[in-house]
Amino acid sequence: MDSKHIISIRIGGVWHQLPGIYSEKEFDALMDLIGWEVPMNVTVFHFHGTENERNPVMRERPRSDIDIEALFKAEVTKHTTYLDASRNRIMKVRRLFGTLAIAYCPSTDLLHLIDLDDPRYRQVAQYKAVPISLNDAREFVDRYHRHCVGTKWHKFSVALETGGEIAGVAIASTPKAPAYDKQTLELNRVCAKPQYHNACSKLIGMILNIGKTMGYRTFISYTLMDEDGASLRAAGFEFAGYTADSKGWDQPSRPREMPERYPMGIKKRWVLRIENKEELAA
Description:
Elements: E1 4-11, E2 14-22, H1 24-32, E3 42-47, H2 56-60, H3 68-73, E4 81-84, E5 89-97, E6 100-105, E7 110-115, E8 121-124, E9 128-131, H4 134-144, E10 156-162, E11 165-173, E12 184-192, H5 199-214, E13 218-224, H6 230-234, E14 238-242, E15 267-273, H7 277-281
Parallel strand pairs: 12-13
Antiparallel strand pairs: 1-2, 1-3, 4-5, 4-8, 5-6, 6-7, 9-10, 10-11, 11-12, 13-15, 14-15
């Protein structure tokens, strides 16, 4: 009796059973598409007759209608590289179908099936700085920032571009609080599309370089309590305490229309100071 073959794939940590049941000839043709290199997160079950229907493991797996043949046939017109942030390893995409990719990992010397919708995968891209207006920067922040809308004013805004599209923007302004002097610049918004690796760090570096050139010597920014400020710390910012518990701009003595997204509560304050002329010119 000829063997039959069924394929199971793991997406988001869950194994799914694909609907197709392949004969020996069909299975060989399918494997020929990928040179018989079965990616990690793909398993093949071989069975005879109705044996698969009695398999308790396969019965418990959810069904998926993913077209594995289309994935195995898919080509990429532009090779892209992703970082698996959970394991700090590079993944080079070889086949792409929707958000599913077959990628080669140099550190494991294996192919992997990955879902690019998984937030741990970040695209490694070549960025270039481009000018952007406040209105365009605000529109980008309104669309992609997790908890804030764009600001209504700025000293300047900057953007990163890759592959003809904007990957991220940053908006900087002079703080209104009288406690800060005229040589202080605030990073109001740093926002990047979630699929891009290291974009926020690049944007922070751009703001600092522009600000230093303009003569600013103190840089400040704020994060929510549940944010670790990793990109700010990597750029040289130091944790400088907490703000007062914010109730927003709308006060009985000063009525204001609140933005659609405005994070209330205590925030972390971050500060970077340029201590000497050599650093300022760097």
